[in-house]
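Re: the 391-residue chain
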Amino acid sequence: MRRLPVLAQDVLLGVAVAVMQVQGTLAKPADIGSRPLGELGHLGYALLIGSGLVLVARRRWPVPVFAAAALASLAYYAAGFTDGPGWIGLFVALYTLTAYGDGRRSLLVAGTGIAVLGTCWLVLAAGIEPAAAIGWVFFRIAASVMAAALGESVRSRRVAAADALERALQAERTREDEARARVGAERLRIAREVHDTVAHAIAIINVQAGVTAYMLDRRPDRAREALVTIEQTSAQALHEMRAVLGVLRDSDNGRVPHPGLGQVHELAVIARDAGLDVTLELDPAVPRLPGAVDTTAYRIVQESLTNVIRHVGPAAVTIALDHGADALRVRVADDGGPDPAPASSPALSHEPGRGITGMRERCELLGGELVAGPRPGGGFEVTARLPLAHR
């Protein structure tokens, strides 16, 4: 069922109050010595009707409507008209003032208005006969206080409901933001995994394919070894790609193990097949590492070897892993090849690519840091510190 528009509701309310005030006063026996409504140019009718019809604007201008109703009430009783239900419009105006006000200011206005009205009513009723009729004055004062209190209660409940709704919406927005952040972090993690896996495999395959093309007619046996390396490298890359993409298809992330430092010897073998002279300096007492640290260290070594194969070619590379009490230190350094260019040479570009940026981001996620740059005597060095307890 459709509700009437707010203005239509207030129009009906104003008309109904005006009718009830007039009808109720006419139906009541006239007070002794009171003035009929028709005297003074029908002023009594005008005040009763006006204090009702003014409620049409009660939501838009609650303070002026209350002031008009209060003045009408004072004028009515000051003129000595018959006492009756002429206070209905005043009570509705008081309720509206506090119900649609701003709390403190509206309560101050209502309290001041009730105090002024109560004082004036008591003064005007000083000589009322019979004396017991003054009880109506106290009734009007008490009813005014109750109307203001009822309006404030409604306003407080409305504000509390609005606050609760806003908190619920804020909580929902926070959950959505957190969900988007988690999705973004997972997308970035998968992008890094794909980059590290594909870049390393393509670099090895590219080198071995060049060797195969060069050795095919001169040394078929060497070409066969290069093809075997290509086959093994591509198979490993496919295996790692399945592990990465399997996360998107299967919620059981433990179905395929992540690569770790236990496979660094395999990386060294592949790098040697690609023409690098790899030296491993491993700490034999390295304990079991946290999974994130283990995978990150492996990816740093893998990406560093990939960069040497792509940008340097045949070179001597040292891979050093040092396990401390609070962190794992990884260092991968190359000598720049047979004819290393000095670090200050403009012909040698050491602009960091996405690989170095990805390695640095991996370290920062674990609370560590990574430094990559040219060595003073030629070549390039990557050093990383990975805390064992992420803070």
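Strands lie at 277-282, 316-323, 327-334, 369-374, 380-387.
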